[in-house]
Amino acid sequence: MCVESGSLNITVVENAIPSLISKIQQFDLDDIYNFDETALFYKLEPDTTLGTKRISGQRITIAFCTNSRGSDKRKPLVIAKFANPGCFKNVNLSNVGVQHSYNKKSVDGYIYISKYLTDFDK
């Protein structure tokens, strides 16, 4: 689902741009969405400390989605490793305005992302 930027053939991309622009122009800006995900390393400490602690890899994945005009901002999707992650202790996620899913391997959240995007049709 993710492609490393160094492995991308730039010529193929440049040749596909005119075709992509032509296809996009067939749609209203309200119907064109941007979806992106990021990782929040909630236990990561500053990298300028004197200590030599091991770097924490604990994270949650957060995905954001909005249409081109910004008039339809979907609830962010939060994928954590546990149903009730420690970083959300005493927080009712249903009241925060996010969709929450959990998976023991939070980096394998593509199943939840597919469901999130499929729910657009409902």
Automatic annotation (TrEMBL):
<dbReference type="InterPro" id="IPR004875">
    <property type="entry name" value="DDE_SF_endonuclease_dom"/>
</dbReference>
<dbReference type="GO" id="GO:0005634">
    <property type="term" value="C:nucleus"/>
</dbReference>
<dbReference type="GO" id="GO:0003677">
    <property type="term" value="F:DNA binding"/>
</dbReference>
<protein>
    <recommendedName>
        <fullName>DDE-1 domain-containing protein</fullName>
    </recommendedName>
</protein>
<dbReference type="Pfam" id="PF03184">
    <property type="entry name" value="DDE_1"/>
</dbReference>
<feature type="domain" description="DDE-1">
    <location>
        <begin position="58"/>
        <end position="117"/>
    </location>
</feature>
<dbReference type="InterPro" id="IPR050863">
    <property type="entry name" value="CenT-Element_Derived"/>
</dbReference>
